[in-house]
Specification:
By secondary structure, this protein is of the alpha+beta class. Helix content is about 30%, strand content about 20%. Helix 4 (about 130-145) links the parallel strand 4 (about 115-120) and strand 5.
Amino acid sequence: MVFSPGHAWRERAPQRWGAAPSSLASNCKYTAALGGIKMNARQLNINDIDAVKIVFLNTFSKTPWNDTWTCQQLHEYISEIMENRSSLSFGIYQNDILVGIALGRIKSWYEGTEYWIEEFGILPELQQNGIGSKFISEIEAILSQKGIAHIVLLTERNVPAYRFYKKNGFEENSEITVFSKAVH
């Protein structure tokens, strides 16, 4: 099982989602050149879906996730997150090119409003450069201004994302257990 943001309860096995059509790589692959250091974060909306799908595909189709999506599956999944009534999604841009995403939703709770991150990713070729930490910091500032009390997410312990979240001040809640069950 995979317990990354939004990857909870999904098996790693590629046959679960089926093989991607050969057109997927050419239609969805991120190919823009990246350079410079101008970075900015902003809130995303459904009009950003094509750029979001490109970043998502190029982040989660690689190790350690190895997700295999068709363009239709990916479009439906991202739409479900971004068109949700409580959706709140962010992007980080380098030279006006989307290089990272945080897709989530707002959840009202008795301890204060929470931001649940379903998907968080930075393009693999830009990871380990502080972009993800800068992005989390920008999101925290925006959420603080909105009066949101907590960020909540799920991830696996044996992937680099786990160490990333710990490094950025996230605390593991040892009292929570995630259950899943296949429906036959």
